[in-house]
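for the recovery benchmark. tokens below, seq after
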């Protein structure tokens, strides 16, 4: 019988326990060497946590040693022709080549709205190329950039947040509704409601109608005005849905909705809204 030396003995005969103990050591190493604490859900499997911690350790170690360089240098200083010297056909080809090169270097670039190819090519060569990042690339690590973070598209942002709010209403997701609201809501009669009051009101509506079904909506108009980085805006449209009571009765709601937005610190939030099936109480 082959004798197993002490050095070859497993920490435990349970593989999961071994992973758990290794994860504790990785947590200690992160904190001792890099001053980083990883907060991971207690329900996360030990094997997944192990991969995450190892990737995190590699990232933080690489970050500590990495130098800051321009994206243009990171992708190898590619030859490119300025946008002003390209015709439309040549520009499309040049844009596709640049996007392929960027993706090869583990960089993701998204355009949430629709823009002409010339606008996108000009952005990459004149702005994105000049962005400074840490000179490090790890397997599976993606650097992510969004065009609208450089050039805000307020109409698109209001449209997205309006859809998020309406969908959250129809699916009765209070947390998402709360995320869309400003801390203070201003009613037409000049009363001020705190966000918590609105959430309490949502709770009462959803308790009365445990489910909404057959929800449909259409945003018909979006408008906004911005002065000195502070703005107001609105989105309006039509909505219809059926509310089910606890007794399984069906109550149809249909009509116009309107969401009023305020822009502060580059963030649009809803400070008042009108939607069929919801009323601000007079209390």
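predicted aa per position
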């Amino acid at each position: 019988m082959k004798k197993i030396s002490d050095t070859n003995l497993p920490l435990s005969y349970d593989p999961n326990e071994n992973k758990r103990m290794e994860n504790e050591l990785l947590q200690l190493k992160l904190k001792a060497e890099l001053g980083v604490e990883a907060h991971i859900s207690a329900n996360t499997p030990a094997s997944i946590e192990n991969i995450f911690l190892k990737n995190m350790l590699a990232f933080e170690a690489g970050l500590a040693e990495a130098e800051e360089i321009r994206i243009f240098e990171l992708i190898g200083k590619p030859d490119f022709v300025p946008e002003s010297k390209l015709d439309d056909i040549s520009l499309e080809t040049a844009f596709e080549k640049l996007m392929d090169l960027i993706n090869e270097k583990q960089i993701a670039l998204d355009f949430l709205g629709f823009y002409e190819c010339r606008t996108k090519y000009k952005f990459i060569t004149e702005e994105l190329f000049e962005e400074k990042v840490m000179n490090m690339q790890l397997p599976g690590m993606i650097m992510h950039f969004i065009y609208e973070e450089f050039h805000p598209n307020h109409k698109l942002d209001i449209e997205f947040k309006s859809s998020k709010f309406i969908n959250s209403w129809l699916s009765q997701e209070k947390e998402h509704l709360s995320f869309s609201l400003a801390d203070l809501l201003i009613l037409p009669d000049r009363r001020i409601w705190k966000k918590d009051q609105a959430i309490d009101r949502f709770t009462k509506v959803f308790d009365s109608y445990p489910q909404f079904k057959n929800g449909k909506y259409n945003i018909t108009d979006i408008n906004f005005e911005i002065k000195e980085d502070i703005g107001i805006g609105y989105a309006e449209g039509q909505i219809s849905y059926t509310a089910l009571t606890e007794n399984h009765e069906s109550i149809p709601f249909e009509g116009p909705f309107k969401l009023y937005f305020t822009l502060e610190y580059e963030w649009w939030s809803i400070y008042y809204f009108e939607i069929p099936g919801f009323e601000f109480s007079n209390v």
